[in-house]
TrEMBL record:
<dbReference type="InterPro" id="IPR011047">
    <property type="entry name" value="Quinoprotein_ADH-like_sf"/>
</dbReference>
<dbReference type="InterPro" id="IPR018391">
    <property type="entry name" value="PQQ_b-propeller_rpt"/>
</dbReference>
<feature type="domain" description="Pyrrolo-quinoline quinone repeat">
    <location>
        <begin position="24"/>
        <end position="615"/>
    </location>
</feature>
<dbReference type="GO" id="GO:0016020">
    <property type="term" value="C:membrane"/>
</dbReference>
<keyword id="KW-0732">Signal</keyword>
<feature type="signal peptide">
    <location>
        <begin position="1"/>
        <end position="19"/>
    </location>
</feature>
<comment type="similarity">
    <text>Belongs to the bacterial PQQ dehydrogenase family.</text>
</comment>
<protein>
    <submittedName>
        <fullName>Glucose dehydrogenase</fullName>
    </submittedName>
</protein>
<keyword id="KW-0560">Oxidoreductase</keyword>
<dbReference type="InterPro" id="IPR017511">
    <property type="entry name" value="PQQ_mDH"/>
</dbReference>
<dbReference type="GO" id="GO:0008876">
    <property type="term" value="F:quinoprotein glucose dehydrogenase activity"/>
</dbReference>
<dbReference type="InterPro" id="IPR002372">
    <property type="entry name" value="PQQ_rpt_dom"/>
</dbReference>
<dbReference type="GO" id="GO:0048038">
    <property type="term" value="F:quinone binding"/>
</dbReference>
<dbReference type="Pfam" id="PF01011">
    <property type="entry name" value="PQQ"/>
</dbReference>
Length: 640
């Protein structure tokens, strides 16, 4: 081959290589989470050149009244706005996403133009939430070009698992009954609103796996929190794991999965090489009183559990909270990353928690890779009938990202007057270190049951081994009351137990949190050393507080999560001021921000297509957001 021909071949090869897309094939960017992209076109030097590329609007939203700054009631939940928490996926040169009403859209990656839309016809009048975090993708390695050779899997609020042809949006008729499987099958009697799918199904090889959201603190015999696996082609049931004590039966006399077990509402991870399905579990119902649990219902509660993908048997489990009566369930997808700790390289699971504590576990054994200590916790003040765990696990490394507990000395205000009112309010409650039990006097949870960290965190830079997590720092009062004293219309009545629960944000008469700002932070953690590299205030109070206070106070409300890029950027929206921001992962410097149509309470994603990198985020609000609900899916790319 002569020199000219060789150069032409090299140029052709380079052109083909550059035109290959970098996809975002799953909710977390990969089947093991991480919210990480290998794309590097957008970097620290040019991120300021990001401009709006396109916007897609579905029309699927409902305006309402935010319910964070008032007592939570059934009415406030019923009338709250929709939450747009979706992270799109990009596979096979198509962007796919679901709306709060479970409609699925397929879009052109360069323009946002619709290719198809699917409507599962969910009766939203029967549902208590509006949420769809993602859809999932599966490509048949035997015949990817066949009809339904590429499938989009959707879990619905009315508990169906639906399989769609990725090319057309039509149902895959060979899956279950006309393209869907009913997840109500095998459960005890329940209302539609008590059992919903809100997170993307997990896929390992030719198996699709799902848990479910189960209505919190309603009754002790809620439907089972079973995790179920199905054949991805036929929809045939393969196995179910019900998180009951190993000594207790998985099913009842009627063959239904035993009710009352903890659930898996958040995103599941899979490790195809080890053949593991790794699930984050919730806490047992009712959430804030455990006197009737008899110990067995807590066995897998608030834990990270590894299941064998072949049969659903437990490989290992690690509990992050013993006898959880604070709703400190495990809220985020377990993140899979290989780490070298003390000179030994191991496959790891990184698990953030509502307590702001991070557990780093061995993926093969479940044992901590950084030390964890069992420490004594408060034993006084529980309501009659309750029992407490004498100790709780505290990671030695990394340090917690949140203060662990609260006292009247932590009271804060804009003026001496509202500070004194906050001090008085805290002094009247049963305050103390973390794990102070819920009480009849009221107990301020700090971290709160919203976090600490929640479903949007963390992002992990797989190259630098740095974890990025957004953390909430806002106290919430949990007060138990005897059933005879419980007001009507409570959203968390804890029926069947001796106590209902009443929850109220701990705020001053001015409606401002009673603890000092920042109320939201963003942090970077070296996962191998366990050191916190930096932690900064995150967001402002613009739109919530008058001038000049929103300039003086840093770190406003947030709900969402971060994404990281191989070029060293962090992208995150989440804040109540409705900005989408980019930060330098090395030092936390803010490099770029763009105003969104409303708050972006979702996890961003990124992909490359036709040699251009795009960054997408859903801007549609959340029920805790002060900004209005919306339906904007926005995409950015570098300006020409």
């Amino acid at each position: 081959m002569n020199t000219v021909a060789l150069l032409l071949c090299l140029l052709l090869f380079t052109s083909i290589a550059q035109s290959e897309s970098i996809e975002w094939p799953a909710y977390g960017g990969a089947k093991g989470g991480g919210h990480y992209t290998a794309a590097t076109q957008i970097n620290k030097d040019n991120v300021n050149d990001l401009k709006l590329a396109w916007t897609h609007r579905s029309g699927d939203f409902v305006a309402g009244k935010p319910s964070f700054t008032e007592d939570l009631t059934a009415e406030s939940i019923r009338t709250r706005p929709t939450s747009f928490m979706v992270t799109p996926i990009m596979v096979d040169d198509t962007v796919f996403y679901c709306t709060p009403f479970n409609r699925v859209f397929a879009l052109d990656p360069a323009t946002g133009k619709e290719r198809w839309v699917f409507d599962p016809q969910v009766d939203m009048s029967k549902e208590s939430i509006t949420n769809c975090r993602a859809v999932s993708s599966w490509i048949d390695q035997k015949d990817p070009t066949a009809s339904c050779g590429h499938r989009i899997l959707l879990g619905t609020l009315d508990a169906r698992l639906i399989s769609l042809d990725a090319k057309t949006g039509e149902r895959c008729a060979d899956f279950g009954n006309s393209g869907e499987v009913s997840l109500h099958a095998g459960l005890t009697e329940h209302a539609s609103s008590e059992y919903s799918i809100t997170s993307a199904p997990a896929i390992i090889n030719d198996t699709v796996i799902t848990g479910a959201f189960i209505q919190d603190s309603h009754r002790p015999d809620v439907p089972s929190g079973v995790v179920r696996a199905y054949d991805i082609r036929s929809g045939e049931f393969i196995w179910g794991w019900n998180p009951v004590h190993p000594d207790r039966p998985q099913t009842d006399a009627e063959g239904n999965f035993t009710p009352g077990s903890t659930n898996v509402w958040s995103t599941i991870s899979v490790d195809e090489e080890l053949g593991l399905v790794i699930v984050p579990t919730g806490n047992s119902s009712p959430d804030y009183y455990g006197g009737d649990r008899d110990g067995h219902k807590d066995y897998y509660s608030s834990s990270v559990v590894a299941l064998n993908a072949s049969d659903g048997s437990v490989a290992w489990h690690y509990q992050t909270v013993h006898h959880d009566i604070w709703d400190y369930d495990v809220p985020a997808q377990p993140t899979l990353v290989d780490l070298t700790i003390n000179g030994v390289k191991r496959p790891a699971v990184v698990q953030v928690t509502k307590m702001g504590m991070t557990f780093v576990l061995d993926r093969e054994t479940g044992q901590p890779l950084h030390p964890v200590e069992e420490r004594a916790v408060p034993q006084e003040g529980a309501v009659p009938g309750e029992y407490l765990s004498p100790t709780q696990p505290f990671p030695v490394k990394p340090d917690p990202l949140h203060q662990l507990g609260i006292s009247p000395d932590d009271a804060w205000g804009l003026t001496f007057w509202d500070k004194s009112q906050c001090r008085k309010k805290l002094a009247q409650m049963q305050h103390g270190p973390i794990y102070t039990p819920p009480s009849l006097k009221g107990t301020p949870l700090y971290p709160s049951n919203l976090g600490g960290n929640n479903w949007g965190a963390p992002a992990v830079d797989l190259k630098r081994k740095i974890m990025v997590a957004n953390t909430k720092h806002m106290p919430i009062e949990v007060r138990l009351a005897e059933q005879k004293d419980c007001p009507e219309g409570l959203p968390f009545p804890q029926l069947g137990s001796e106590y209902c629960v009443i929850m109220t944000p701990v705020v001053s008469p001015l409606g401002i949190p009673c603890t000092a700002p920042p109320w939201a932070t963003l942090a970077a953690v070296d996962l191998e050393s366990g050191d916190i590299l930096w932690q900064i205030p995150f967001g402002t109070l613009k739109g919530m507080a008058p001038w000049p206070f929103y300039h003086l106070i840093e770190g406003g409300m947030e709900m969402g999560g971060p994404m990281v890029t191989a070029s060293g950027l962090i992208f995150i929206a989440a804040t109540s001021d409705s900005y989408f921001r980019a930060f330098d992962i090395e030092n936390g410097d803010e490099l770029w921000k763009q105003k969104l149509p409303t708050t972006g309470n979702a996890v961003p994603m990124s992909y490359t297509y036709n040699n251009e990198q795009y960054v997408l985020v859903a801007a549609g609000g959340h029920f805790t957001s002060p900004e209005p609900a919306g339906d904007h899916l926005v995409a950015y790319k570098l300006s020409p």
